[in-house]
Amino acid sequence: MQSPAIEEMFARFGPRYRYYVSFTAMMGTMAMVLTATMINVAIPVIMGAFGVGQDTVHWLATGFIAAMTVSMLLNDWCVRSFGMRNTYIAAMLVFTFGAILGGLSPNVDVMILARILQGSGAGLVQPLSMVLMFQVFPMEQRGKAMGLFGVGVIVAPAVGPTLGGVLLDAYSWPYVFFMSAPAAVAGILLATIFMPRRDHVGPRPAFDWTGFVLIALFIGCLLTGLSNGQREGWQAPIIAVYISVAAFSGVAFILWELNTPNPILQLRLFTNRNFLAAALVGSVLGAGLFGSTYLVPLFVQTIQGYSPTRSGLLMVPGGILMMIAFPIAGRMADRLPRHLLVATGLFVFAFSSILMMQAHTDTPFWTFAIWIMIGRVGLVAVMPTLSVSALSTLSNEMLSQGSGAINFVRQLGGAFGVNLMAVGLQQRTAFFADGYAGLQTPDNIITMDVIGRISHLLGQMGWPFEMLPFGALYLIGQTVYLQASMMAFRDIFLFVALVYFVAMIPAWFLRTPRARQAPVAPLRPGPSLAN
Fold first, then answer.
1. How far is 502 from 507, CA to CA, in rounded Å?
2. Which domain holds residue 448?
3. CA 192 to CA 190: how far, in whole Å?
4. What is the pLDDT of residues 389-414, one digit of tens each?
5. Is there a single domain that holds both residue 347 and residue 441?
6. At what angle do helices 399-437 and 273-302 cross, to 10 degrees?
7. Alpha carbon of 68 to those of 50, 203, 312, 496: distances in Å?
8. In this predicted model, what pLDDT tens digit does every residue of 444-477 receive, in sequence order?
9. Does one domain contain both 451 and 499?
10. Confidence grade of residue 168 (pLDDT, cut at 50, 70, 90)
């Protein structure tokens, strides 16, 4: 049942209102998700501009996703308190301010703060858009609605690196931030016309500040501990403090949410088998989606020497394929067994990760692009089907909570996925580098022959005689590091594939026949959240 505010908008604009408001919602979603991934191609440039390493710069991606994850839990309360229109506009304003601040950042710390602000705005808009589109489309077209929603959530990460690369090569890194501001402003203007107002005027519902602080502590401390563990040492006292605080706040959050009358995350949702299975698969989906858009541009720029534009263009064929396939996948979600679609999509994405393990310094552009396209086909099959499976079993009163929760777990998977992949990449690179370096000894005939050849070439180039050994050793060290990095990337691609294969197990529990899918009952009488 639609809210009076939505019915009023249909009466004003007619049946095509669902497309007007969907376009408005997707303007914000696409602008924000584009920003989440455009920064990935700029990471090597920013590392050089500010003199920081991977252990710091990955927070530009992780901080954004973590802030988005936490702020998603605010969506339900904000919508009930201020309505969809005001919540959307406020989130877009915060996001735009973060974009401008990021482009004007004098150092990497301010840039990370700007990314956190952008993520905070993005976290409010994504679940709001999903709930709105779920309610303006009839029951038999909800797969189609989630297909349209998926265009923004999944296609934007594929197109983002391309836009970022073009801006970097044509201008400089600040324009990667500034690019998203015009789309956000356009979304604000459209929202004043097409977004529904707040239905009910009265006292605002109580907000679960304790739960919010506990989940923010859990995510922040755990991500900080994981990202700093390699640099500080996993036995360092500060790392133990981070992990301990994260463990305590995580347990305290669960206990608090089970007993508070106004939880920020309704854990009762996870007693629904379909929703729980969708949440587990969604967390893996987020890890693979954001992790792959982080890894691939980094690989081709550091290992194959791609320019930012070329690394971005590598993602374009997959993005075009997804634009074509998403509406089809949305209709398939309305007609075919959902568990089969999700399991097939997971298998296909895992297979593409296995293919990427073959990547090396000379992998052709189109070979890599085809591997990415295969993975995107898998994501197309999973995304709209998973959203329909998660939300179709919920009552209208629980849609906002359910949307926030399913987006929360997907983004949480993305935050931890990027973080763990960055940490794993550092560890495996160090492991292989140590192994290869240990083989470069005076007893290694091949190594000594290479040193001699390099020294001869450097001598012909005019290097001083006393510098020839140092130059040769430096070049061999660079070669060893490059080989170690390539092997580390292969290990991470294998890890992603294994995780996706394992995720096929919970995907099978989405096979509940539609006739037996009972909506979760509302917790208590209250106003509709579709405002």
1. 9
2. 437-478
3. 5
4. 777 777 666 766 777 788 788 878 87
5. no
6. 40
7. 25, 27, 23, 22
8. 666 666 666 766 676 667 666 666 666 666 666 6
9. no
10. confident
**342 shares a domain with 450:** no
- Rounded Cα distance, 118 and 178, in Å: 12
Claim to verify: residue 167 and residue 277 sit in the same structural domain: yes
Q: Which residues contact 231 (CB under 8 A, 6 or more apart)?
A: 55
Query: Residue 14 is part of a domain; what is its CATH number?
Result: 1.20.1250.20
State pLDDT tens for residues 83-107.
888 999 999 999 999 989 988 888 8
Q: Domain count of the chain?
A: 2
Relative orientation angle of helices 399-437 and 108-136, to the nearest 10 degrees: 140
C-alpha to C-alpha distance for 119 and 403, rounded to whole angstroms: 17
Place of tokens 């007007």: 20
CA pair distance 69, 287, nearest whole angstrom: 13
Alpha-carbon span 517 to 219, nearest angstrom: 33
CA distance 59 to 224: 9
Q: Are residues 291 and 177 in the same domain?
A: yes
Q: Are residues 458 and 404 in the same domain?
A: no
**Of 522 and 265, the one with more pLDDT:** 265
What is the pTM (predicted TM-score) of this model? 0.69
Q: Do 512 and 297 meet the contact criterion of CB atoms below 8 Å apart? A: no
List, as one string, the DSSP characters of 243-302. Answer: HHHHHHHHHHHHHHHHH-SS-SS-GGGGGSHHHHHHHHHHHHHHHHHHHHHHHHHHHHHH
CB 374 within 8 A of CB 355: yes
Q: Taking a C-beta distance cutoff of 8 angstroms, is the pair 31, 94 a contact?
A: no
